[in-house]
């Protein structure tokens, strides 16, 4: 049995003098003994689509795949994610905060999407709130549109990330209408009265039709992240929620083949430049995942461990652990793309 860990945000990229290299002996052992390969830097979504051999349409077709995981039926329609966000002015710029910065209930999501559906009936736009934080938009025709992922735009000035393409201007207008509908809604008036950020816009991204996935690149997928679940279901791979630690995972993972495990607790901290939370989370990964997996590899319970993050991939087998002459670099060096 082989384990492939996908860990977005594993390497802290910062010129901040406050950064201190964390003490992570198990992870450092893996990285030092492994055969390392560096390619183009990929975010989580693109890495997953490439791993499952999904072809890019105008966008990576993330919305339709996530919809499958959320219990929806994409059919042959064109779908966009239309996730609820909060826009606020900061130093003259319109900055986006995603649902990690606020809480929204399913009832609020249902009421807001109902208002949007009522407004856009004649435009052929249908919104679905399959999850409070994940909304979907079904279109009656394919737009000429390229979008940027929500994770890219979050925390940034949205002007740099707005939809582009032949139909881009039209969709900028749609977004303005969406903001007007949401601004005056009773849900947002109540949220503001109680001190909560209003859900005053949506972020459109991940457009496309449900792809057909030929083959099964992983025997089993372990994840809490929605896109990964959709890809597992579409490919016919086994699918389970992420266990709390590696001991629990080892007790459950008996099928032969490659098991894909998504550890995404670092992603938000890295994105929002929250070094304190990043350090806390990576130390937890060391205790709960890296150290137990190192022991499993040493004792032959694993044949190989692969760790992927950003532009890097590290493959280490049990025999590699004896290559004591291999000396690893600081984690920060991998973030800056240095190579030996």
Topology:
Blueprint: E1 2-6, H1 25-33, E2 35-38, H2 44-51, H3 62-69, E3 78-90, E4 93-97, H4 106-119, E5 125-131, E6 134-139, H5 150-153, H6 168-183, H7 186-193, E7 201-208, E8 220-222, H8 226-235, E9 238-240, H9 246-252, E10 258-262, H10 267-271, H11 275-298, E11 304-309, E12 312-317, H12 331-335
Parallel strand pairs: 1-10, 1-11, 8-9, 8-10
Antiparallel strand pairs: 2-12, 3-4, 3-6, 3-7, 5-6, 11-12
- Amino-to-carboxy terminus distance: 30 Å
Strand content: 15-25%
The strands making up the biggest β-sheet line up spatially as 2-12-11-1-10-8-9
* SS-derived structural category: alpha/beta
Anisotropy-based shape: globular
What pattern of helices and strands is seen along the backbone? EHEHHEEHEEHHHEEHEHEHHEEH
User: Main β-sheet: number of strands, strand sense, barrel status?
Assistant: 7 strands, mixed
What's the Cα radius of gyration? 21 Å
Tell me the helix content.
Answer: 25-40%
Number of DSSP-assigned strands: 12
Q: Could you list the spans in which at least 5 consecutive residues all have pLDDT below 50?
A: none
Count helical runs: 12
Mean pLDDT: 93
Walk me through what this model shows.
With 340 residues, the protein is α/β, with parallel strands linked by helices. Helix content is 35%, strand content 21%. The chain has helices spanning 25-33, 44-51, 62-69, 106-119, 150-153, 168-183, 186-193, 226-235, 246-252, 267-271, 275-298, 331-335; strands at 2-6, 35-38, 78-90, 93-97, 125-131, 134-139, 201-208, 220-222, 238-240, 258-262, 304-309, 312-317. A 7-stranded mixed beta sheet has the order 2-12-11-1-10-8-9, with helices on both faces. Strand 11 and strand 12 (312-317) form a beta hairpin. The longest helix has 24 residues, at 275-298. The radius of gyration is 21 Å and the shape is globular.
């Amino acid at each position: 049995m082989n384990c492939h860990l996908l860990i977005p945000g594993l390497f802290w990229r910062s010129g901040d003098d406050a950064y201190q290299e964390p003490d992570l002996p198990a992870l450092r052992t893996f990285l030092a003994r492994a055969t390392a390969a560096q390619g183009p830097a990929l975010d989580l979504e693109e890495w997953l689509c490439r791993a499952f051999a999904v072809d890019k349409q105008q966008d990576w077709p993330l919305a339709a795949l996530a919809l499958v995981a959320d219990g929806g039926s994409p059919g042959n329609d064109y779908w966009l994610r239309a996730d609820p966000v909060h826009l606020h002015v900061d130093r003259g710029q319109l900055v986006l905060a995603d649902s990690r910065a606020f809480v929204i209930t399913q009832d609020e999501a249902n009421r807001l999407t109902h208002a949007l559906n009522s407004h856009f009936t004649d435009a052929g736009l249908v919104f679905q709130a399959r999850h409070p934080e994940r909304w979907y938009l079904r279109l009656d025709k394919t737009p000429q549109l390229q979008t940027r992922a929500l994770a890219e735009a979050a925390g940034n000035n949205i002007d740099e990330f707005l939809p582009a393409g032949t139909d881009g201007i039209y969709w900028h207008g749609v977004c303005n209408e969406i903001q007007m509908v949401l601004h005056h809604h009773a849900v947002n008036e109540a949220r503001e009265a109680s001190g909560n950020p209003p859900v005053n816009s949506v972020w459109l991204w991940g457009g496309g039709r449900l792809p057909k996935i030929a083959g099964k690149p992983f025997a089993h997928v372990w994840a809490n992240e929605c896109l990964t679940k959709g890809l597992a279901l579409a490919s016919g791979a086994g699918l389970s929620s992420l266990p709390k630690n590696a001991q629990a995972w080892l007790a459950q993972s008996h099928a032969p083949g490659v098991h894909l495990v998504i550890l995404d607790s670092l992603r938000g901290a890295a994105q929002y430049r929250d070094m304190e939370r990043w350090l806390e989370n990576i130390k937890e990964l060391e205790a709960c995942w890296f150290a137990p997996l190192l022991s499993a590899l040493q004792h032959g319970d694993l044949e190989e461990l692969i760790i992927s993050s950003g532009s890097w991939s590290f493959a280490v087998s049990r025999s590699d652990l004896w290559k004591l002459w291999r000396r690893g670099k600081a984690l920060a060096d991998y973030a800056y793309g240095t190579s030996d």
